[in-house]
Design goal:
Structural class: alpha+beta
Radius of gyration: 36 Å
Number of helices: 30
Largest sheet: 8 strands, mixed
Strand order of the largest sheet: 8-24-23-22-9-19-21-20
Strand content: 15-25%
Length: 849
């Protein structure tokens, strides 16, 4: 124990028992960082110059668009990065320590190295420590290991390199005592504890940008440079022809604004936002928008076992009685021995389950739940056979005994009213190996059969309890000597069973080209048994313990992970290394978890998925997505949504780029042919704001298709702008551009450049609106029901067509939008050319497919 003076010196030397936190960015800093994008910088420069030259409208339009993008990005960023705050909540508010020979209560922050801490049931452990006394002590370390069963503690030596879950002679900060009491000497505080090491891992784990983010950024830079060069050439050509420098510049800026898809980022964000709403209805809350798109690229899902693939609830699976293995659903209470085993499991049991509120050890509540499922009134059984005395469970004996007054099997056939048929019976339950050595009247053959069955249960990942009994002489307190010469009754095997939907979800996962990997803190046998049941594990050689990868280099681990599907007894460092190894092999990795120990790997993964019900605040803060039902099957639904959303975003991008390319081609043709520029700056801004955005957003809301799960995930380095994709954009842009040029030339034959420009403007607007239907799918849709299954696209088309028609027909708008009054023949020609692109492009798709 420490004196107050020693404690003060240790605090000066080691610091306080708290987690440190790095400096956070202010909201203003985060907002300003949104303007670092190369494309945005170009547009800001164009807006500033336009403002100086008197074109306030263009400047205002540009600033509104980029500011909206910045606000959306800031809101998303501010919601993240709260992991360390969650970790701080794990610190115990107070601790009981022995100072100056006296037991005192102090703030957990003041606990220091060398302190002697007293812990008992209900206490939160304030720091890591070595046990020096232990009385039936059990601690819940699920926040660190992810496993739901309490850990039995003892004073026996444990290897220094043992996994956290196997260090039974130590206690850890962030866990709490569920049973018993003990005393420990503090060996680590603050950032040096296991929780502190996890905090450091969270800091070093890097969040990954999704493939779409990377691809769009690279494309944006290249496209901006190309468009700026093109605008510069046009500006020079206009000057050489004797045009006004100011007018030439304003047109170049307007063309740049129209050609650069600055609305692309906003539209992608809006589409992702709508996608998150759909996913929320299916129990997946998305915290970071880019995770929606990233889900569609996932090729490896590393999943925790407990609560995600399993039900996180111990369940009695089998009885072994009278030499038979009996499934729980086939238990026959008319059988004397089966009924007696059920009765014993109720009586030698400290747990309760009243109105769904379970109190007690998970293995004991499993026995109570089985009785209730079989229609047995637990309270009535306990009232009928009250507990007369007991020997509580402790981790050294590994058994528990209770005494009750009841009839025994050998009393069958006697009158129930005969008082001699009521005996004082000791009911004993415990580990099979501990009870077998205390059995009387059991043959070696029977013993071998019981051991064989126990081994079979263990290989299936089941937790086994043995039950026995003994008649006591007279009414007295039970003693340790009474736990000898027992009569064997049977075994009950339990496990945390897989969720019913897990097997189907794993099958869909594999069908979609995604490799499922189980990473758990549980024992290898248990993990492998569950993994085999649901289809993750095919062969035992694909399972290993975390210690196997401890001394591997990163290169060796990359080669190793390919053949492993189950990792057991892993530490937080192991998890983060496994995720990195898969990433280094070029995979997009999703990682699920619920404990503090999962937080670093959740942050390192491309898509971190936390559990909403059982998950710690730390894991939720580190994750990109939270499952409100803690179900692996929900992840697969989210992957399907992600793939559909990505396809819809591709369709929206194709719509935007092909339309922009058409505008550039029309301007390029006119410039090369020596004709007047087809469009006024206000035309390009109108197209950019109205006929671009609405259909693009609508395409992002296309109904989802199940067939996307029959495709393999795309490679991490695969650009969205593949050769086929760019060819489609170019072909469709060429069609729209050619029809626009034809309309311009028809109008130019009248000798009025304004009429020519108006016809080109109207044709381009309406063509792009109709082109939205072309971009619904890479396959032809014009003759299928899919042409009209998107009400948003139909609405966007009708609104856009009404707006452009209003501009062309209402005289009051002619001056504002610089359009000419067209004859009915010119209007019909313009409409015919505009809608011609629909059958032409659909025919090209038909030929291609």
């Amino acid at each position: 124990m420490l004196t107050s003076e020693q404690a003060r010196k240790n605090q000066e030397r080691y610091g306080y028992n708290e987690l440190t936190e790095g400096k956070k960015k202010s909201v203003l800093q985060i907002f300003l960082e949104q303007f670092k994008d190369f494309l945005v910088i170009i547009l800001i420069i164009a807006a500033v110059v336009s403002g100086f030259l008197g074109d306030a409208e263009s400047a205002a339009v540009i600033f509104v668009v980029i500011t909206m993008n910045a606000v959306l990005g800031t809101v998303q960023t501010v919601k993240a990065e709260q992991s360390l705050n969650g970790l701080k909540k794990l610190s115990a508010p107070a601790a009981k320590v022995v100072r100056d020979g006296t037991l005192v209560q102090i703030p957990a922050r003041e606990v220091t190295i060398g302190d002697e801490v007293v812990i008992e049931t209900g206490d939160c452990i304030p720091a890591d420590g070595q046990l020096i006394s232990c009385a039936s002590l059990k601690t819940d370390e699920s926040a660190l290991t992810g496993e739901c069963l309490p850990v039995e503690k003892s004073l026996e030596d444990v290897p220094a390199d043992a996994a956290i879950g196997d260090q039974t002679n130590r206690v850890f900060s962030g866990s709490f005592v569920t049973y018993g009491r003990g005393t420990c000497v503090v060996t680590a505080i603050g950032m040096e504890t296991e929780v502190g090491r996890i905090a450091r891992l969270i800091k070093t784990a890097s969040e990954k940008r999704t493939p779409l983010q990377v691809s769009l950024d690279e494309f944006g830079k290249k496209l901006s440079v190309i468009i700026l060069v093109f605008c510069g050439i046009l500006f020079g050509m206009n000057i050489l022809r004797g045009g006004s420098a100011v007018d030439a510049f304003l047109f170049a800026v307007a063309l740049a604004v129209a050609a650069i898809p600055e609305a692309l980022s906003s539209i992608v964000t809006i589409v992702l936002s709508f996608g998150t709403q759909k996913m929320a209805k299916e129990h997946a809350i998305v915290r970071k928008l880019q995770a929606v798109e990233g889900l569609g690229s996932v090729s490896v899902i590393c999943s925790d076992k407990t609560g995600t693939l399993t039900q996180n609830k111990m369940t009695a699976e089998y009885y072994y009685v009278d030499g038979r293995r009996i499934p729980a659903e086939e238990i026959d209470l008319n059988s004397r021995s089966q009924e007696l085993l059920l009765r014993f499991s109720i009586l030698c049991n400290d747990s309760t389950n009243e109105d769904g509120a379970e109190i007690g050890d998970p293995t004991e509540t499993a026995l109570i739940n089985l009785a209730q499922q079989l229609g047995v009134n637990v309270a009535e059984v306990r009232r009928r056979y009250p507990r007369l005395s007991e020997l509580p469970f402790d981790s050294d004996r590994k058994r528990m005994s209770t005494v009750h007054r009841m009839r025994l099997p050998e009393d069958d056939g006697k009158e129930q009213t005969d008082i001699n048929c009521k005996r004082n019976v000791a009911v004993v339950k415990g580990a099979v190996d501990m009870l077998l050595d205390r059995m009387a009247g059991i043959t070696q053959e029977d013993r071998d059969e019981i051991e064989r069955q126990n081994l079979e249960f263990s290989r299936d990942g089941l937790r086994v309890l043995a039950f026995a009994y003994k008649e006591l002489d007279g009414e007295r307190e039970i003693s340790l000597e009474d736990e000898e010469d027992l009569t064997f009754l049977g075994l009950i095997a339990m496990m945390d069973p897989p969720r019913e939907e897990s097997k189907e979800a794993v099958g869909r996962c594999i069908q979609a080209g995604i490799k499922p990997v189980m990473i758990t803190g549980d024992h290898k046998v248990t993990a492998a048994a569950i993994a085999k049941r649901i289809g993750i594990l095919k062969d035992d050689s694909e399972a290993c313990e975390g210690a196997v990868i401890e001394n591997m280099t990163d290169q060796e681990l990359q080669e190793f992970v390919e053949g492993i599907s189950v990792y057991a007894r892993v530490s937080p460092e192991h998890k983060i290394r496994i995720v990195r190894a898969w990433q280094d092999k070029g995979n997009i990795v999703a990682m699920t978890g619920d404990g503090v120990n999962d937080a670093p790997a959740l942050k390192q993964a491309d898509i971190g998925v936390a559990m909403g019900i059982t998950g710690s605040e730390v894991s939720k803060d580190a994750a990109a997505m939270v499952l409100t039902d803690d179900n692996f099957a929900t992840i697969i639904k989210a992957v399907e949504n992600g793939r559909n959303i990505y396809q819809n975003i591709k369709n929206a991008i194709q719509f935007l780029l092909s339309g922009n390319f058409a505008a550039i081609l029309a301007v390029l043709f006119a410039s090369v042919a020596g004709l007047p520029v087809p469009f006024e700056p206000v035309h390009l801004l109108f197209i950019n704001l109205l006929t671009d955005s609405l259909p693009a957003i609508a395409l992002g809301l296309e109904p989802h298709r199940a067939e996307v799960m029959e495709q393999k995930p795309r490679a991490m380095k695969e650009s969205i702008l593949t050769k086929d994709y760019l060819l489609s954009i170019g072909t469709e842009g060429l069609c729209i551009g050619a029809l626009t040029v034809i309309a311009f030339l028809i109008g130019y034959r009248t000798g009025d450049a304004k009429i020519a420009g108006t016809m080109a403007f109207g044709t381009l607007c309406l063509s792009r609106l109709a082109h939205g239907f072309n971009c619904k799918s890479s396959r032809p849709v014009v003759f299928s029901p899919a042409i009209c299954n998107n009400v948003y696209l139909i609405g966007a088309f009708l609104v856009g067509a009404a707006l452009i028609t209003g501009v062309l027909l209402l005289p009051g708008l002619h001056g504002i939008f610089k359009v000419a009054d067209l004859s009915s023949g010119q209007l019909l020609t313009m409409y015919a050319l505009a809608f011609l692109n629909l059958p032409v492009i659909q025919f090209l798709k038909m030929m291609k497919n």
